[in-house]
Amino acid sequence: MSASSFAYKQAKYRYVRNYADGKWSKGRLSEDARLVLNESACVFQYAQACFEGLKAYRNKEGRILTFRPDLNAQRMKDSCERMVMPIIPVDEFIEAVDETVLANEEILPDCADGSSLYIRPFMIGSSPTLGVGPSEEFEFRIFVSPVGAYFAKETKSLSLKISDFDRAAPKGTGQIKAGINYGMSLYPLMIAHEEGYDENLYLDPQNHNYVEETGGANIFFVDEYERIIVPKSDSILPSITRRSLIELSRDFLGYEVIERKVSISEISSFKECGLCGTAAVIAPVGSIDDHGKVCIFDTSEDHYGKTCKKIRETLIKIQHGEMKGPDGWVHVIR
Length: 334
Ligand code: PLP
Ligand code: COI
What we know:
This protein is of the alpha+beta class. Helix content is 22%, strand content 28%. Strands 1, 2, 3, 4, 5, 6, 7, 8 and 18 form a 9-stranded antiparallel β-sheet that branches. The longest helix has 16 residues, at 179-194. The protein starts with 13 loop residues before the first strand and ends with a strand. 2-OXO-4-methylpentanoic acid (COI) is lined by residues 53, 216, 277-279.
C-alpha cells in the first residue's frame, strides 16, 4: 500500500484518553473519529490546544519503526506546560503511539516509495469556559493517516516568499506546537499561494531582520564552503528533523555546522537551501523572494543542491532502518 499526498484519510482506530478531577483516565482505542464537545469548550473559545507530528515506517524487512518519538513526547510536554495543560509522561506517550500504530497496521504503507503513516497526537481543553482561563478537563488523542509527500510539487524545488506577517510573537508561542501558531499562518499562506509561492518564510517578529522558519518547517542553508548554516532563534519550533540533521551532518558526513542568527541580507550569499520537518522531510528550496529581490539556490541534482541531497538521503536511510544512526534514534515498534 502507498499514499501519494499529505491528506487526512480516516483510519479505523484512534487512541483516546481523558483528564478530569486532576487525573488521567486509562487510555483506550476507539473506532469513533468524532469528538462531541460543549459549544463553550476552551479549545473553541480560547484555542487551548497543542499537537505533535511523527511518522511510522514499514521497511523492507517488514519492521515497523518510528524516529525519535521520545523527542516528540518531550516537546509535547513543553507545549502542554506553556498552554496550561496536563502532561503525558514520555513513556506513556510512546506506548500510546505504538499501540495506535499497531492497531492500524493494515494501512501502514511500505516506506520504499516515500510513503509513511503520519501520526498526529494532540490535546485540547474540553470543558466549558467563558471567562478567559484554562480548561479543567482535557482530551488527548492520537490519530494516524497514510501520507506521501507534504509538498504537492514533490519533484520540484520550492519557491518561498518573505512574509510581512509574523507566525510568532517575541516571547509568544513560536517555540511550541500550539494550534494557534498555525491558525495565524492561514491568511498569509493563502496570499502566498494566490501569488504563486509554495510557502512563506517568516522573519523574526521583533525586528524583521533575521530568518526564522516557514509555516510548517525549519529552514537551513549551505554556504560556499559547504558549511551548514542553521538559523537560531527563541521563537522557532525546535524541529526534531533539524536537530537530527545537525548531528548527522556533523558526526556522520563531516560537515561543519554553524547555528547562528541569519540576517535576511546575507541569504543571497548561500549556495543551497532546504526545509526540514517531519512532514517536509528535507525539501529543496529553489528561490526566496524578498520583496522583488529573488535569491536563487542550486537545485542541479534532481531539484536538490548536492549537499541537501546527501543529507536527505542519509537521514531517510537512518529513519527507514537501512543505516545505523546514533543509538536511540530508531524506535522499533515491531
Ligand atoms: N516548524 C514548524 C512550524 C513545524 O510545524 C514543524 C513540524 O513539526 C517543524 C518546524 C518541523 O519539526 P519536526 O522536524 O520536529 O517535525
Ligand atoms: C509536521 O511536520 O509534523 C507538522 O506538524 C507540520 C505540519 C504543517 C503538517
